[in-house]
Amino acid sequence: MEKPIVNGSHCHNQLWFIIRASFVFCLVLLCLDYSVLSGVKNGVFPLVSQSFSGSQKTHNATQFAAIDEISVPNPISSDAHRDFPFRENNYNITLANVTDPCSGKYIYVHRLPTRFNNGVLRDCRNLIKWFNMCPSLMNSGFGPKVVKPQGVLSRKNWFETNQFMLELIFHQRIKQYKCLTNDSSMASAVYVPFYAGLDVGRYLWGYNTSVRDSAAYGVADWLRKQHEWNRMFGQDHFFVAGRIAWDFRRQTNNESEWGSKLMNLPEFMNITMLSIESSSWSNEFAIPYPTYFHPLRNINVVHWQKRTRTRKRRYLFCFAGAPRPTMEGSIRGEIINQCLSAPNRTCKFLDCKAEGNKCDAPVEVIKVFRDCNFCLQPPGDSYTRRSTFDSIISGCIPVFFHPYSAYAQYIWYFPKNYTKYSVYIPQNDIKNGNVSINRVLSRFSEHRISEMRKEVVKLIPKVIYANPKSRFERFEDAIDIALKKVTERVNKVGEVMKEGKDPSVDFAAGNQWKLKLAGIVGDQALETLF
Ligand SMILES: *[C@@H]1O[C@H](CO)[C@@H](O)[C@H](O)[C@H]1NC(C)=O
Ligand SMILES: *[C@@H]1O[C@H](CO)[C@@H](O)[C@H](O)[C@H]1NC(C)=O
Ligand SMILES: *[C@@H]1O[C@H](CO)[C@@H](O)[C@H](O)[C@H]1NC(C)=O
Ligand SMILES: *[C@@H]1O[C@H](CO)[C@@H](O)[C@H](O)[C@H]1NC(C)=O
Ligand SMILES: *[C@@H]1O[C@H](CO)[C@@H](O)[C@H](O)[C@H]1NC(C)=O
Ligand SMILES: *[C@@H]1O[C@H](CO)[C@@H](O)[C@H](O)[C@H]1NC(C)=O
Ligand SMILES: *[C@@H]1O[C@H](CO)[C@@H](O)[C@H](O)[C@H]1NC(C)=O
Ligand SMILES: *[C@@H]1O[C@H](CO)[C@@H](O)[C@H](O)[C@H]1NC(C)=O
Ligand SMILES: *[C@@H]1O[C@H](CO)[C@@H](O)[C@H](O)[C@H]1NC(C)=O
Ligand SMILES: *[C@@H]1O[C@H](CO)[C@@H](O)[C@H](O)[C@H]1NC(C)=O
């Protein structure tokens, strides 16, 4: 599945998103490009078309009114702390930890007016211009259950999850967080359940800037009026966006510029955003795209990991996607050519533009990826892709062509040494046409492939969104990691403030060296690319 968004992947030779002039230029190019790509005249949107056929009934917003009713567990209940938070060999447990294991981890959830979250869901037919999103809201945002796993998927826990549903998924899951508090003065961090991406998704095409920015201003005003704001000027606040950062980074009020200006409002410059793709700003962190596997229990994950680790794979490499013929500099055409012309059918191409869009069907995607050693992840409309996470849950080693596709993004999730779990082929080498992907990948020995696959399979629990109904001991999933990191960050900012310093200097810096700061290492020197 591809994203109907635009972004600056043409800008990679400049310092990431930093140079404003090239920003605007890029955006215009891409907006044009986008309208061509979108193929609206055919009544279909080839890159995002979704078929909700077969098993699904028709759904509408009234049926989702109840999704907010999951009860909040008592944070100090016995069962809740079984795996939490003491670790073996940690001798530096302070008194506070002993009396309260949630110390330094409390989160307060703002009671935001519903027009900024559930109210948006009621408009589910219009969330994305090209198809009805209502079915995607089911099951806490996981979407319809996969009813026919066809022996490809494990029997339960698989859903037809839409890649833009993270806001809802996160909101439902945080209700299970063990250290929630209703007393905001105790909280380390304040979660703002604003469905920023679903909101703006309705207005990205064909609406003026005041419509696109309306909710952004509304939430900013509301937040500033709450007494929670004053403690740290919002720097203990965070929210989750299920779209890429680029959709919230409009710089001017020029109508032809893309997106909303949410992240450029003074209030939001003091807030941390977690989104599926971050830009270079330091108050943004990337968290995984939601993929299809949402297990209930540890054992479901363990079984799936075993299955993916041991599977014999008949293709050397695979690509699931569509070309970007009108996008200047896109390497997708070349990737597809190389795949189709690879000798001895060592590459499998899943054409996302073909009839009956298989790329949105979990069974079809996993059926291909589970048979491949390597899965190609070239930039598309933006640097990142949901497919990266489809490939990880399939135990397929991702091949990246740009450091912003993953290494500079999911720094909370992936090993710092990217050579361990992925292959990097600079996209310029593909553009020049002098690198054969087949040749590069053929050089990896069976042993090395198996080592890398082990690392990929280890990532599975970290990048998935567990079923919020799981109340038992559970692996640490994408949300557990995000909440741990975000409270750590806020605690650090708080300490800086206590020392009387202004944390805003680093809080929202436009920082092109994210990669370096994150300590990323690997076989090639990534810095040379900037
Ligand atoms: C939505 O569903 C409810 C209950 O199933 C039904 O009464 C109502 O007519 C439906 N509305 C639309 C717009 O389909
Ligand atoms: C505990 O704290 C001491 C001093 O603050 C430090 O030297 C030591 O490495 C810490 N031990 C652990 C296990 O973190
Ligand atoms: C104990 O609490 C302190 C501060 O409240 C925190 O920094 C530390 O990580 C906690 N330790 C454990 C083991 O949870
Ligand atoms: C917070 O308050 C709500 C409503 O009063 C209650 O349902 C919930 O259990 C409380 N949560 C905590 C963590 O105390
Ligand atoms: C923007 O569009 C809305 C509705 O489409 C309209 O009511 C409003 O007047 C427009 N604003 C400007 C500044 O054009
Ligand atoms: C808005 O941007 C377009 C494209 O960059 C440019 O041609 C136009 O002059 C701009 N309009 C204003 C009012 O700045
Ligand atoms: C953002 O935080 C800084 C302190 O770091 C503060 O001076 C500023 O007023 C805050 N902005 C808003 C809109 O509250
Ligand atoms: C294709 O497969 C045949 C038979 O397995 C083998 O002899 C040949 O070297 C392969 N060609 C390439 C280019 O790998
Ligand atoms: C990164 O991992 C690879 C493969 O495990 C290893 O060969 C290499 O030495 C590591 N590089 C660094 C800088 O740790
Ligand atoms: C690709 O071609 C360019 C220009 O001809 C050359 O500079 C570069 O070294 C080549 N790269 C590889 C990996 O062969």
From TrEMBL:
Coiled coil: none annotated. Pfam families: Exostosin_GT47 (PF03016). It is found in: Golgi apparatus membrane. The chain crosses the membrane at residues 15-37. Keywords: Glycosyltransferase, Golgi apparatus, Membrane, Signal-anchor, Transferase, Transmembrane, Transmembrane helix. The keyword Glycosyltransferase applies. The keyword Ligase does not apply. It is a single-pass type II membrane protein. Residues 102-440 form the Exostosin GT47 domain. One of its GO terms (cellular component) is Golgi membrane. GO terms for molecular function: glycosyltransferase activity. PANTHER family: EXOSTOSIN HEPARAN SULFATE GLYCOSYLTRANSFERASE -RELATED (PTHR11062), XYLOGLUCAN GALACTOSYLTRANSFERASE GT12-RELATED (PTHR11062:SF316). Belongs to the glycosyltransferase 47 family. This is Exostosin GT47 domain-containing protein. It comes from Gossypium raimondii (Peruvian cotton).
